[in-house]
């Protein structure tokens, strides 16, 4: 019987294109972080499949299902589960990191779902690399 692959912190960091600090100080403090399966040298070992599931479920951003032609306020985008807050949208708008609104009727900024989806696809994810 072959043991399932196991990873230590430096291998996790390399696999997912993040720093060791990100793994130990951010990911490993998440309540859903998997339990270690053993120890190799000074590092705890984790089942590779558990780490893959954790990253998929808690780290990778999933594209929201926004209606392409519907207009959304920043709060409605947040409520749709896009992974960022209305405050972040407003702050990024002032820093030219979020697209200009598609509609400003009544002084309220609104973005078409297609515009918001495109902006989200361009945002930095938690991974540096493209591998996977």
Summarize the structure.
The chain is α+β, with helices and mostly antiparallel strands and 132 residues long. It contains 6 helices and 5 strands.
List the topology elements:
Layout (H helix, E strand, L loop, with lengths): L5 E3 H8 L3 H6 L12 E3 L2 E5 H12 L11 E2 L1 H6 L6 H9 L16 E2 H10 L10
Antiparallel strand pairs: 1-3, 2-3, 4-5
Terminal residue distance:
26 Å
- Radius of gyration computed on alpha carbons: 19 Å
Q: What class would the helix/strand composition place it in?
A: alpha+beta
Number of discrete helical segments = 6
CATH architecture of the largest domain: Orthogonal Bundle
Number of domains: 2
Q: In what range is the share of β-strand residues? A: 5-15%
CATH class of the largest domain: Mainly Alpha
Biggest sheet strand line-up: 1-3-2
CATH topology type of the largest domain: Multidrug-efflux Transporter Regulator, Chain: A, Domain 2
Can you characterise this structure?
This protein has 132 residues and is of the alpha+beta class. The chain folds into two domains: 6-59, Orthogonal Bundle (Multidrug-efflux Transporter Regulator, Chain: A, Domain 2); 71-122. The chain has helices spanning 9-16, 20-25, 48-59, 74-79, 86-94, 113-122; strands at residues 6-8, 38-40, 43-47, 71-72, 111-112.
């Amino acid at each position: 019987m072959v043991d399932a692959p196991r990873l230590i912190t430096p291998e996790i960091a390399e696999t997912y294109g993040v720093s060791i600090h990100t793994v130990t100080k951010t990911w490993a403090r998440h309540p859903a972080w998997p339990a270690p399966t053993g120890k190799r040298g000074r590092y705890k070992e984790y089942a590779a499949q558990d780490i893959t599931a954790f990253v998929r479920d808690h780290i990778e951003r999933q594209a929201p299902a926004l209606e392409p032609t519907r207009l959304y306020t920043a709060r409605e985008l947040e409520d749709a589960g896009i992974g960022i807050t209305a405050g972040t949208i407003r702050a990024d708008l002032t820093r030219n990191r979020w697209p200009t609104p598609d509609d400003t009727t009544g002084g309220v900024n609104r973005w078409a779902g297609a515009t918001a989806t495109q902006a989200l696809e361009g945002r930095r994810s938690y991974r540096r690399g493209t591998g996977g």
